[in-house]
Amino acid sequence: MSRIRRALVSVSDPTGLDRLARALHGHGIEIVASAGTGARVEAAGVPWTPLDEVTGAPEMLGGRVKTLHPAIHGGILARRDVPEDLERLAELGIAEIGLVVVNLYPFRETIAQPGVTDAEAIEKIDVGGPAMIRAAAKNHRAVAVVTDPRRYPEVIAELAETGGSVSEATRRRLAAEAFALTAGYDAAIAAWFAGQVALPDGIVIDLAKERDLPYGENPHQAAAYYVDRTQPRHLLTGVIQHGGKELSYNNLADLAAAHAIAAEFDRPACAIVKHQNPCGAAIGRDIGEAWARALAGDPISAFGGVVALNRPVDAALAAELAEQFLEVLIAPGFEPGALEALSVRASTRLLEDADPARRGPARHLRPVPGGMLVQEPDRADEPQEAMRVVTAAQPDAREWEDLLFAWRVCRHVSSNAIVIARDGATLGIGAGQMSRVDAVRIAVEKTPPDKRPGAVLASDAFFPFPDGPELALEAGITALIQPGGAKRDDEVTAAVDAAGRAMAHVGRRHFRH
């Protein structure tokens, strides 16, 4: 390991800089810095060398050009084991740079601000920073590159242990982080330039590990949760965990599904999810009623479920929730006494969603061997006036409300999907079946016999034959909603007409595989 004699420091995030600067100075390492960084170094009581003294050229173009100079990049990129490189440095009077400490202009943070202009965003595209980072990472056999203030303590400790050096293993690890940083930074910029193009010619995904997970879908699978840094918000943005075990892979998958359903409704709503499918969903006059009615939809399946509420939890509701074994409970808040009441379930993960606005992915991606299937999210929210009643019988006001409720829940159910509902609550759900008639059969069987008469049914795709609707009509279903568009639509409609029931066509399906 070679002792570091000169460090280049140029940061936009001053976190921990004072301590790092004092440590470098303590090892006799000269600090070369840009004007803004140098002022912070000086405030820490540490001497520094201005960049323009090294380059012989002033910063120009409003700071756009300051480190793009042979005196900087030569000192970083020179190969210490190539005599010709060192001879050239000596000829030009360029000193070696053994440590580069750089973080980038806050581009992501800038574009996340409401009302930011193109000009403001473009000025936060760093040019010199990525160039120095990549140069140092490329030459990591001789140069250490530090891009994250969280690494400062490790570097300081290693400098102290070695007397001013950084090991090859550390330099290689820091280089990997550096290349990941610049790749992600470019991904964010590319995504911003692509704007609203859902399926551009190229997609670069910037995933950063948010946390390790205990395991994947099964205990023998390693797993972690990564966030897409090209997006302003993710599943756990603003989420505070108040208690319970560590979140697992399956918890997060179910949490995403439950949150999406609860966020569908302006009225107090509850969604209970198992294996990414709702086993109960309901709206109510208040959140307590919504919970009770969602639970009643399938109390057996709700055991060990993930529950999402779109209203805060009070102490009375918390006491009711504590009677049920739940893996995860997420709500916009917990009123006084609620967390105490829920603490009897020590394993339940209690999540407060301080940022409850609806969130969803910019696009859906599914890996296949050697590639990725990419599609726009299914964000359709069809208005009632766009739906067409195809039967002689018309749904009454209550049936229309239930049809619209069931339709909104149905698009969150795995295909083939059937949802039976009444009075703003699910009664039976048939999910993920290869046969649509089997999905109807399961939904009917899940619905208590005394609640079938007067209930409505939603199907995520068209009925290819009359057998599915006939099974529902025999059970007492009074109105159906489906996309329509099958070759045998007339036969299906005739079967519903023969029973004197109502059916609406939406004109759009909602497969979810």
**CATH arch. level architecture of the largest domain:** 3-Layer(aba) Sandwich
CATH structural class of the largest domain: Alpha Beta
Number of strands: 21
CATH topology of the largest domain: Rossmann fold
Number of helical elements: 18
Give the CATH H-level superfamily of the largest domain. Answer: Methylglyoxal synthase-like domain
The N- and C-terminal alpha carbons lie at a distance of 54 Å
Q: In what range is the share of β-strand residues?
A: 15-25%
The protein's oligomeric status is single chain
**Uncertain segments of ≥5 residues (pLDDT<50)?**
none
The shape, in one word, is elongated
Specify the structural class: alpha/beta
Sheet bearing the most strands, described?
6 strands, mixed
- Radius of gyration equals 30 Å
Helix content: 25-40%
Q: Give the total of domains.
A: 3
Structural write-up:
The chain has 513 residues and is of the alpha/beta class. 36% of the residues lie in helices and 19% in strands. The chain has helices spanning 17-26, 35-43, 51-55, 70-77, 83-92, 107-111, 118-123, 128-138, 152-162, 168-194, 249-262, 287-297, 315-321, 338-342, 397-410, 436-446, 467-475, 489-498; strands spanning 6-10, 30-33, 49-50, 99-102, 144-146, 207-213, 223-228, 239-243, 269-274, 277-283, 305-309, 326-331, 349-353, 364-368, 371-375, 388-389, 418-422, 425-430, 456-459, 479-482, 502-505. A six-stranded mixed sheet has the order 8-13-12-11-9-10, sandwiched between helices. It has a six-stranded mixed sheet with strand order 16-21-20-19-17-18, with helices on both faces. The protein has a five-stranded parallel sheet with strand order 3-2-1-4-5, sandwiched between helices. Strand 12, helix 14 (338-342) and strand 13 (349-353) form a beta-alpha-beta unit. The mean pLDDT is 90.
